[in-house]
Amino acid sequence: MALRYAIIIALEDKQATGYEITKWFDNGLGYFWHASHQQIYLELKKMTEEGLVTFVEIEQEGKPAKKIYQTTASGFAALDQWLQLPVKPMPVKDTLLMKIFAGSRMEPAILLAEVERHRTQNRQLLAEFHEIERCFQPVAEKPVKYQYAYLTLRNGITYLEGWLKWSDEVVSFLQLQEQSR
Amino acid sequence: MALRYAIIIALEDKQATGYEITKWFDNGLGYFWHASHQQIYLELKKMTEEGLVTFVEIEQEGKPAKKIYQTTASGFAALDQWLQLPVKPMPVKDTLLMKIFAGSRMEPAILLAEVERHRTQNRQLLAEFHEIERCFQPVAEKPVKYQYAYLTLRNGITYLEGWLKWSDEVVSFLQLQEQSR
DNA sequence: GACAGCATGTAAGAGGTTACATGATTGG
DNA sequence: CCAATCATGTAACCTCTTACATGCTGTC
């Protein structure tokens, strides 16, 4: 049920195609939700049937026709109702932690390589987030809406910083393990 | 596919019932995976059919019979093979962040109450983790296996610390919003 | 008397992934 | 020439949640 509200939020101030919503979830500001294009197209179809969104189809030369979606009044009403509901804590599912927990079954070098791979990815992501953060400055002068968005960006940044700090501990430990064979 | 490996890891050094595995995921050391009892019973059934685990049924007075599971050699082999595979990054799905992103649509007081609720929960969880952390001390003197487990606990602690630090920013901002009505 | 804990399960349905399918344009 | 970008979708399958079902014991 949350996906549809994520879509309505994505469509809040700009109309967009399913393709664009997918992009938005993948990179840019979608650091709080992810969905595949298949899922999004299906959900948009259902939402259209339920009157939460409408679309205009636009023919294009050399490209497939696109459907530009926008949220209806009923869609926004549904979002506002949903926003009032309490959030249940998301169940933890972390495959990397699972592997570290069972790490003594593996060769330290292999686990270390895996951790380093994630570190590189997360360092890159953090750099991107810092890049985006600069666009928000000075925050206090931006519209209130941007300030809320900024908080979610800050969440991404503090999360990644904490994760990278933690991963230092992991790397040190694994290097020790590797040395003592 | 990851659930079965989480179960094999849970059964690594002690045999257990489905009920106990569920408890283990819920509280205690299950801060890297969660699954409902329905899911676990079903998975254990499939795993038994595939020869990854076996069980002994024990009749009890006044309580329903229980099945004590343990991993087979083929189960451990499957785990060790899986551990070599690269981990794909878990897709982000954070409902609270979604609500904060759309926060300008809500009354600040309501969102603030929601955030405070999560803060209370996370503070409690952090206290529990700190409690468990003390049992690990001094880490260097514990068996290597415990040291790997300790790293995953450390992940939980640094995550929660970072989250709580971030939530301070959120609370300050929402209090300001509330004051300026 | 009601609720929590122990201990197992089935079944329906929602949510999500993977694979497949199409087809033109642009950049390396 | 291959890959990526734009742009849509279907179908099979796996995963996970929610609801239902049972039944005894011990505590408030």
Outline the fold blueprint.
The structure is a homodimer of 181-residue chains.
Chain A: H1 2-10, H2 18-26, H3 37-49, E1 53-58, E2 66-71, H4 73-84, H5 95-101, H6 108-136, H7 144-179
Antiparallel strand pairs in A: 1-2
The first copy, chain A, binds a DNA duplex (28 and 28 nucleotides) through residues 1-3, 17-19, 35-39, 41-42, 45, 60-67, 91.
Write a structural description.
Two copies of one chain form a homodimer. The first copy, chain A, is mostly helical and about 180 residues long. Helix content of chain A is about 65%, strand content about 5%. Chain A has seven helices and two strands; from the N terminus they run αααββαααα. In chain A, strands 1-2 form a two-stranded antiparallel ribbon. In chain A, strand 1 (about 55-60) and strand 2 form a beta hairpin. Chains A and B meet through helix 1, helix 4, helix 5, helix 6 and helix 7 of A and helix 1, helix 4, helix 5, helix 6 and helix 7 of B. Chain A binds a DNA duplex (28 and 28 nucleotides) through helix 3.
Give the strand line-up of the largest sheet of chain A.
1-2
Query: How would you spell out the order of helices and strands of chain A?
Result: HHHEEHHHH
How much of the sequence lies in strands of chain A comes to: 5-15%
Structural class of chain A: mainly alpha
Q: Radius of gyration of chain A, rounded?
A: 21 Å
Task: Average the pLDDT over all residues of chain A and give the rounded result.
Answer: 94
Biggest beta-sheet profile of chain A: 2 strands, antiparallel
The poorly predicted ranges of chain A are none
Number of strands of chain A: 2
Query: Given the C-alpha coordinates, what overall shape of chain A results?
Result: elongated
Helical residues, percent of chain A: 55-70%
The number of helical elements of chain A comes to 7
Biggest interface, chains and residue tallies: A-B, 61 and 61 residues
Q: What's the multimeric state? A: homodimer
> How far do the termini of chain A sit from each other?
49 Å
